[in-house]
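Notebook B, p. 112. Complex prediction, attempt 2.
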Amino acid sequence: MLTVRELAELVGGAVTGDGGVEIHQVAQASCVRSGEITYAISPVYVEMVRASAASAVFVHEKQDLKIPQILVPDPKIAAIQAAMRFGPEPSYAPGISPGAFVHPGAKVDPSASVLPGASVSRGATVGARTVLMSGVSVGENAVVGEDARIHPNVAIGERCAIGNRVILHPGVCIGADGFGFYPAGGTHQKIPQRGIVEVGDDVEIGANSCIDRATVGRTVIGDGTKIDNLVQVGHNCIIGKNCILVSQVGLAGSVRIGDGAILAARAGVADNLNIGAGSIVAGMSGVANDLPAGSRVGGLPAYHHMDWKRNLVHMKNLHRIVRHLEQLAKRVSEIEKTLLQKD
Amino acid sequence: MLTVRELAELVGGAVTGDGGVEIHQVAQASCVRSGEITYAISPVYVEMVRASAASAVFVHEKQDLKIPQILVPDPKIAAIQAAMRFGPEPSYAPGISPGAFVHPGAKVDPSASVLPGASVSRGATVGARTVLMSGVSVGENAVVGEDARIHPNVAIGERCAIGNRVILHPGVCIGADGFGFYPAGGTHQKIPQRGIVEVGDDVEIGANSCIDRATVGRTVIGDGTKIDNLVQVGHNCIIGKNCILVSQVGLAGSVRIGDGAILAARAGVADNLNIGAGSIVAGMSGVANDLPAGSRVGGLPAYHHMDWKRNLVHMKNLHRIVRHLEQLAKRVSEIEKTLLQKD
Amino acid sequence: MLTVRELAELVGGAVTGDGGVEIHQVAQASCVRSGEITYAISPVYVEMVRASAASAVFVHEKQDLKIPQILVPDPKIAAIQAAMRFGPEPSYAPGISPGAFVHPGAKVDPSASVLPGASVSRGATVGARTVLMSGVSVGENAVVGEDARIHPNVAIGERCAIGNRVILHPGVCIGADGFGFYPAGGTHQKIPQRGIVEVGDDVEIGANSCIDRATVGRTVIGDGTKIDNLVQVGHNCIIGKNCILVSQVGLAGSVRIGDGAILAARAGVADNLNIGAGSIVAGMSGVANDLPAGSRVGGLPAYHHMDWKRNLVHMKNLHRIVRHLEQLAKRVSEIEKTLLQKD
């Protein structure tokens, strides 16, 4: 619980109205409740705040509202600062908890935290200040760097390597076998998948996403790349640095993605393609060809995004286009009839 | 093992044929085996039953079949009643199992069951009769209500709140960080995600679905809403009551969905949109605009479902439409030539 | 660490160049490093190898490269053999590890391995040489066959049956409740899901995929079927033998799929449909009708793949088609004007 005045101090803002009002949480305008502070960054937000039970609000400049206001240069950043105060990241005592399973042949830095139910296999290494939460499984000879936060029930397969300051959200699977089979008399025989996954520094991977191990060699997630939830990365993909893969994206095997590329939600890429650096693939699109650096594409198969956007409008009007065509055909028939009669 | 007669008593039906036949399981007509009872709700089903090894069948009225029949008002409901008898829900003794990890600062109701390998963190609360199965992780200060059933390997993040009678299937992730970054010199800097998820009463969420925590404030799943497997709900979404989100649906951030809306399989919604109450979005569609209450839409971007359905037919015929257009163009050229000659 | 000469012996190949060079790993040409061997199967690969730091290479015939080469009939197979040598599958001692939770009423074969944090419930059976890794949960009366490898955090629901030589990758969920509700006064009432899942022999299921239990009876995955990551299989589906379901595929309820069918990435199938044996559904397609055996389809809804491919080209050109139509309309108007003037 903080007063509006204390919150204003926290974020470096100025109070208008009653600075003594007590605030216990921050929330977005669409669901803010009494006792909470919210933020407004546009007239639409101001109206939502007016209609809400908010007890205070962060604003850029004074608004015509009856509740106390905290004036700040960036109301959303102030709200985030407040949120960090009301709900700080949990911290974990260093050491191996009772109920954690660390193989005697594993090396866990004494400053790392291994929570109950986490498991570290023979030969694995866990770096300084890294946290392995409950249910995390680190396979044989896998390496987890420093300052990583590995959330519950993440599975890191044998020999895979995770960089420093990596965040893996719950249920992430690093290093399951790639999907590779060869046909044999109507059955599918497994091609051994004995490569690894290498996750660079400062990577974040969302909940329940899957990065398959390479058949041979490595599947690579470059430094600084951010991957959302429920994303599939096939075996032997090489993803560059500082890429963005939004939720439900799927990459088939051996896709190479250049630095800084952005794949919007549920974009898919067929196997063995090159996506040039800085490319942007629209959501729900399917890439079926190599893309040069800086491409902007959409559609299935994906092509230049401006053509695609124009076509989306035409597709929506397709029934009108067809009617137009039919009417034109009638007019042409009429003309043909007229000309015949004239002969 | 029950006789046909005993099964008929169980479901309140009437036997025709040998009531002494012994039945050990119930199965659908497409895979029923000897010793099992099945059900038929249409002539197609009756034919499947005739071709099967089923030992008995639930029917609405007597059919020309050689096996014993149980006549009931609703054969599928009778089959479900039988299934509940042959395979009841497991029950769990109250208490904290050996091998469960409950922080001394957590409050677990004595009637709750915490199974081996489940973990309850400092400050968390678990309500009466709730079951936490193996590998479940309840974060710091999280709250799980009464009569909830939390299946294996579910992760509930710190401070998140789960209502009463909630069912979370295996691998569900509540409260992973939302996907939020700001650009800084070619890198993506993390925007702290310090809000929570609030899951209302009577909600069911399918296996491996992900509900991200809000940046600030809350992501809300309203009372009675049912979510299928592998669904993605982004940060700060506000989903109303009694909604249906079918498998593989994806919601970007800050989507608001009104009560009773239905999103069919793999529908997607772009960020910050409002889906009005009672709207129905067709499967595999992508919503890119606000929808008023009661909308029925399909397509990418989604628009009125009747127009969309007509257009689907036209798209399938597009090669014919193009040929029609080319033929028409030839006829027009012919006409133009004729007119020129006449001049 | 092996010399090139030792590697050549391992794979039955012939060395050209320095056989004494030491190699510690194998990697694909796109990311191979010094100290590693790679493989080349085409001129494109040879160029990648030339530009790389590779210390040796598997080739089919001698190439103009300065590094040692190992000549083999199939360079990719040789690379896989090397990968198996440098990174063999981990092996696990038989027995129940400390920190595993096996109910006294469960039957675990003495040759099976149950790793720390795995949980086997009352009445469950685990066959010979099967490995249950950390965090695996085997429900009441479930059966896991022989020589199965169940990766971390897999959940197998009560009474479900897993065949011999099955591989379940991390986070797989077998036997969560199907998604079934009936409407009641604006709410959705749960239809009990009391059937099971039966997974045949030699099945492999990818990370975080979900196979729902039947409402009554069984959901069946036939022998030899291979399922990739993040796939959804609804309740009561019957999938035949030796099928392939690529990543992010989704099957609604009660879909039947014949032997040997292939569903490419992110294909979807609506409920209650029959996909005939040997059918191939293109990636990102949505099947909305029964398909006879041997069908090849694509699109939404899916239809004959050749028509669909032609239409994809037309859709990309739709803005040109519309312009053509508009120009033609102008010409027809001109003609009509001319004819009127002539009258």
